[in-house]
Specification:
Layout: E1 8-11, H1 13-18, E2 32-37, E3 62-63, E4 66-67, E5 70-72, H2 73-85, E6 91-95, H3 102-116, E7 121-124, H4 130-139, E8 143-145, H5 153-159, H6 170-184, E9 189-195, H7 201-214, E10 216-222, H8 239-253, E11 263-265, E12 268-271, H9 276-285, H10 319-329, H11 339-345
Parallel strand pairs: 2-6, 6-7, 7-8, 8-9, 9-10
Antiparallel strand pairs: 1-2, 1-5, 3-4, 11-12
C-alpha cells in the first residue's frame, strides 16, 4: 500500500493505544488520531517551549508532554480507516515538523489516508505557500492550522522568531493565516495560542478576537514546561488566569461578546462584558473549559498529567469539577469594577517571561 519514501510516522501514545498499535490503558480516549511527521534529528525551527526545537535537549519523541512513538506508515493508515468506519474517531490530525521536504511527506500521508478513508483530515504545519495549501485542499485536507502560539509580536520574536534563532516572522504567519482562509474558507483554519508565555489577559483576549475577525479559530493551550527546552524553568499559568481566558475565548468564539465589550485594568480583565447571571450559567455548563480546536479534537492530557490539575478537559466537566472551576475563576459579582475584585484574585503577580 505505501510506496513513497515516508516509511515511519510518529503517533501520540493515546492514539497508538486506541488504534491497537501498542497496549495500554486510557481513561480519556482521543476522538482524533494525532500523527507527527518522522525524521532523524530535530525540527529546523527553534521554538523555546518545544522539545522538537533545533537546540532543545529534550526527548526527541515528545511534543508538549505527550510521547510519540514511531510506527510503520503501512501499519497505521489502515487502522485509522477502520477506527473512523467504526465511529471511534472523528478526525485525524497530521502535525508536521519544519524540515526540507516536509510538504512532500504531508502530501504522501494525505494521499495514503484519503485513498482508503473519508475521515476528515487536519494539517498543522509551518506557514506554507498558497500553492501548497491549494494542493493540500485538492488532495483532501479540509482544515489547516498554522500556530501563532504567542499573543503578541514581541513574545513571538523572543520565543519563535529571530531573537530565538528561529526562521519565523510574525508578519509571515499572519499572511499565511489570511491566505489559508482564502483557500479553505472562514472557519476552516485554526491557529494555536499558548496561554502563559508572558502575555496579559488583555493581550490574549485581543488576539483571540483578531483571529476570529480573520476567520481563524484560535485553539487554546496552557504553557507546559518541558525538560530540555529553553523555557523549562518557567511555570504554568495559574488556573484562575487560564480559566478567565478560556471563558473570554468562549464568549468571543460563540459571538456572545467581543473584546471591545470587555473591560481591563493594567492588562487584567475586570469585566467580561455580559451580565454576571449569564456568565455564571455559561461557567456552570462547563463548555468553556473543554479542549478547543478543530471539530472532533479533544486532545487528552496534552497540557496536564492525568492526576491533574486539568487545564483543558477532554470530557464534559463533572459537577464537582465545575464547582472547582468556579473557585478557580473567582467570578466577579455585579458591579465588578471595584478594585477589590482584582485584589481577591491572588494571581496578578505570577512570574512571567
Amino acid at each position: 500500500m505505501t510506496t513513497g519514501k515516508l516509511e515511519r510516522i510518529r503517533v501520540s501514545i493515546g492514539s497508538a493505544i486506541l488504534l491497537g498499535l501498542m497496549e495500554g490503558i486510557i481513561d480519556a480516549k482521543p476522538t482524533t488520531i494525532y500523527l507527527l511527521t518522522y525524521i532523524e534529528g530535530r525540527c529546523t525551527a527553534n521554538c523555546g517551549f518545544c522539545p522538537q526545537a533545533r537546540e532543545s535537549r529534550g526527548r526527541a519523541d515528545m511534543l508538549s508532554r505527550v510521547i510519540w512513538p514511531p510506527f510503520r506508515v503501512a501499519n497505521v493508515i489502515p487502522r485509522i480507516a477502520e477506527a473512523y468506519k467504526d465511529g471511534e474517531i472523528k478526525r485525524t490530525c497530521i502535525q508536521a515538523l519544519n524540515y526540507p521536504g516536509v510538504v512532500d511527506d504531508i502530501m504522501f500521508l494525505v494521499g495514503e489516508i484519503r485513498g482508503i478513508s473519508k475521515v476528515p483530515i487536519s494539517v498543522s504545519c509551518q506557514p506554507l505557500s498558497r500553492e501548497d495549501m491549494v494542493n493540500l485542499m485538492k488532495a483532501g485536507v479540509n482544515r489547516v492550522s498554522i500556530a501563532l502560539d504567542c499573543s503578541t509580536k514581541e513574545l513571538f520574536e523572543r520565543i519563535k522568531g529571530s531573537e530565538a534563532g528561529g526562521p519565523y516572522k510574525w508578519e509571515s504567519h499572519l499572511k499565511a493565516l489570511k491566505e489559508a482562509v482564502e483557500v479553505f474558507g472562514r472557519g476552516s483554519v485554526t491557529t494555536h495560542l499558548i496561554i502563559g508565555l508572558g502575555e496579559s489577559e488583555e493581550e490574549a483576549i485581543r488576539m483571540i478576537q483578531s483571529c476570529m475577525d480573520m476567520g481563524v479559530y484560535p485553539a487554546l493551550f496552557a504553557f507546559t514546561p518541558i525538560p530540555g527546552t529553553r523555557l523549562e524553568n518557567n511555570p504554568q499559568p495559574p488556573l484562575g488566569y487560564y480559566r478567565r481566558v478560556q471563558l473570554a475565548h468562549y464568549l468571543v468564539t460563540k459571538s456572545i461578546a467581543r473584546y471591545e465589550d470587555m473591560e481591563f485594568r493594567d492588562g487584567h480583565l475586570t469585566s467580561f462584558g455580559v451580565p454576571v447571571r449569564l456568565l455564571k450559567s455559561i461557567v456552570r455548563s462547563g463548555e468553556p473549559f473543554r479542549t478547543s480546536g478543530c471539530p472532533g479534537c479533544n486532545r487528552p492530557y496534552y497540557n496536564e498529567r492525568p492526576s491533574g490539575p486539568i487545564y483543558n478537559y477532554a470530557w464534559k466537566p463533572r459537577p464537582e469539577e465545575i464547582a472547582e472551576i468556579e473557585r478557580q475563576i473567582k467570578l466577579p459579582e455585579e458591579g465588578n469594577r471595584d478594585p477589590a475584585y482584582l485584589r481577591s484574585r491572588g494571581d496578578l503577580d505570577w512570574p512571567r517571561l
